[in-house]
């Protein structure tokens, strides 16, 4: 089978002869041609899609040396077909794959790290390196990578002779047997690769790092190139504009404005917490103490505050067992607490009687009752859950 995409990755259409066509899963057919411009999934690069005649090509994979085109229509052996790849998808993959080479080559040159994982998805590229890279170092590498892009350097792809291959210092994730295809970018990378690439680095447009995090013994880097980088910029710029308008701050000052807002929010949360504590103190003073189980309802208490209220009631010995509820209609958040008794068993029974869900360990549990206030009060007063 002739791999036209290796000879000319810019070839969008071709004619081929059907060598075999076998039915597959999901109503698809596996079509093998004598030559193809469709790139099969491999080396971290996704497959091409497009058409063969009137049939849709939904996937392309290489198996046992053959390239299988997954189509939604059947073909006859010996039939001549016209193929057309989805060019927008292909050129996006070519740009991202070339951008990955540039960046990975620079990382290998500077740190000696290997690219041990590469995946190209809808939203960009992820690359795993087997060593640590800081944010500042990634920014420096990004700058250098873009210099190589804007220098519009030639991107070479060829099968060197065995003698020439031995003289090349190239990157490879594994030992390779047989002919090895080399991709070379002057000053950027020399790597064994079977993928498709642009002919000059300028076609990559721009390389933008969008994420960097620790992964296993190294880092995982996220990257977008070209049109995807522009889309990413526009999406984030829209967010900056919205935040700027919401905070009445200049776009270049939104981070400072958000930081100030968070500080003010933290102060307000502390003030709210203190007010709740005062309210809980007053409510506790209104309730008699004792060892009888206590049921209380409070309006509009958030779950976190409901838990604090229940804990305070237990602490001030308002009952051996305390059930605090807050809600409306047939949805009541609850917290069940005790000073000295495990509440898990009580919680399971109350949940079964009141359509509840929730759990807890030790002296406190919380959840939600799908029942009315009257139903909760009736079940609590009957004490059936405590027997």
Describe this protein's structure.
By secondary structure, this protein is an alpha+beta fold. The chain is built from nine helices and 20 strands. A hairpin with a 3-residue loop joins strand 12 and strand 13. A six-stranded antiparallel beta barrel has the order 2-3-7-6-5-8. Strands 16-17-18-20-19 form a five-stranded mixed sheet, sandwiched between helices. A four-stranded antiparallel sheet has the order 9-10-15-14.
Keywords:
387 residues; five-stranded mixed β-sheet; six-stranded antiparallel β-barrel; single chain; elongated; alpha+beta; 29% strand
Shape: elongated
Gyration radius, rounded: 33 Å
Q: What string, H for helix and E for strand, traces the elements in order?
A: EHEEEEEEEHEEHEHEEEEHHEHEEHEEH
What percentage of the residues does DSSP assign to strands (E)? 25-35%
Distance between the ends:
79 Å
Write down how many β-strands occur, each being a DSSP E stretch of 2 or more residues. Answer: 20
Percent of residues in helices comes to 25-40%
């Amino acid at each position: 089978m002739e791999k036209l995409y290796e000879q000319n990755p810019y070839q969008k259409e071709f004619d081929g002869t059907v060598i075999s066509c076998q039915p597959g899963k999901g109503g698809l057919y596996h079509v093998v041609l004598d030559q193809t411009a469709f790139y099969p999934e491999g080396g971290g690069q996704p497959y091409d899609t497009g058409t063969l005649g009137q049939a849709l090509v939904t996937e392309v994979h290489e198996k046992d040396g053959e390239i299988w085109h997954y189509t939604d229509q059947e073909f006859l052996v010996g039939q001549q077909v016209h193929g057309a790849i989805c060019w927008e998808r292909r050129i996006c993959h070519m740009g991202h794959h070339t951008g990955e080479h540039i960046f990975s080559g620079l990382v290998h040159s500077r740190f000696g790290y290997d690219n041990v994982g590469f995946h190209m998805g809808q939203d960009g590229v992820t690359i795993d390196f087997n060593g640590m890279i800081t944010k500042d170092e990634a920014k420096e590498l990004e700058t250098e990578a873009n210099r190589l892009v804007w220098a519009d350097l030639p991107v070479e792809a060829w099968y060197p002779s065995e003698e020439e291959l031995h003289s090349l210092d190239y990157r490879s994730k594994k030992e390779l047997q047989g002919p090895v295809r080399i991709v070379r970018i002057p000053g950027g990378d020399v790597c064994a690769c079977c993928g498709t690439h642009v002919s000059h680095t300028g076609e990559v447009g721009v390389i933008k790092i969008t994420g960097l995090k620790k992964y296993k013994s190294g880092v995982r880097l996220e990257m977008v190139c070209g049109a995807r980088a522009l889309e990413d910029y526009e999406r984030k710029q829209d967010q900056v504009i919205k935040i700027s308008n919401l905070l009445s701050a200049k776009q270049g000052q939104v981070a400072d404005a958000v930081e100030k807002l968070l500080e003010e929010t933290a102060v307000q949360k502390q003030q709210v917490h203190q007010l709740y504590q005062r309210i809980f103190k007053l409510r506790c003073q209104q309730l008699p103490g004792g060892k009888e189980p206590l049921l209380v309802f409070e309006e509009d208490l958030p779950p976190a505050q409901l838990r604090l209220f229940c804990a305070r009631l237990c602490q001030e010995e308002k009952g051996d067992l305390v059930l605090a509820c807050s809600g409306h209609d047939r949805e009541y958040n609850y917290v069940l607490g005790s000073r000295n008794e495990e509440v898990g068993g009580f919680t399971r029974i109350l949940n079964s009687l009141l359509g509840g869900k929730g759990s807890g360990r030790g002296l406190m549990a919380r959840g939600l009752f799908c029942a009315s206030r009257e139903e909760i009060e009736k079940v609590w007063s009957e004490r059936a859950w405590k027997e």
